[in-house]
Design brief:
The protein is mostly helical. 62% of the residues lie in helices and 5% in strands. Helix 1 packs antiparallel against helix 2, helix 6 crosses helix 7 and helix 6 packs across helix 9. The radius of gyration is 23 Å and the shape is elongated. InterPro entries: UbiB_kinase (IPR050154).
Amino acid sequence: ALVIRALGVLEGIALTGDPKFKMIMEAFPYVSKRVMSTDTPLLRKAFRDIVYVDGVLSAKRLQVLLDSSAGFLGDGDAFVDFDTPSEEAMDPTESLKFLNSEDGKFLRSVIADEIAVSLDVVARSSTMELKRRIPSTLLALPFVNVLNLVPDLSKEEIVQLENVREIVKFLSDRQVSSKNMTPETLRALLPELGNSASDIVIQVAGQLSELAVRRAFDVRRSSGEVVAGRKRFPQSRLQSNLSRWNSNLTKK
């Protein structure tokens, strides 16, 4: 981010006069708040550069950004380590207060996107767990073999589940395992979001509807593959399962 880079240059100049001076550490609470609240292309890019790693939101980096906006910084000599949260963290009530404020509007949008994606991933994860519990001999039965169409979770999606677990943790101070994440877990977070809950629910509903429509069109495509979530699998697999299904129905 250009703002942070400029501060780095100014700090270098200041250090020639006072070796113990830490301009970035002093200014970072203000910078963090601006990065999360100011609606300009430059600062939106700065937010993405800080919080997203390989295209996936990092809950740890988001927490560091929130903590630093409240003055909770790590023990670095001059620079903030976004991958190492401070020993002192922002109180969940303060995080929620910022999220409910006008300055937290953009952050609410980001969290809503993550919740929408995670609800979809949690649903697929639950379906995969159900599939694992069904005897293999029953998976070819009508209305059961459709479970074979559900692809395994990708590494990226597993990371997303872990990130939402961390978001739930630092917004509500509740411990929850990513393996035990359920739609109820995320729904239980909504009352704690206060006034921002309605905005988030509306956006999540819109995102899920958009995802459902996109998948409906993906399944109807004839390009040789079907898309489920962000993971692709061969259309031949779909054809094979449907053929088996039709065969079983014919025999009956």
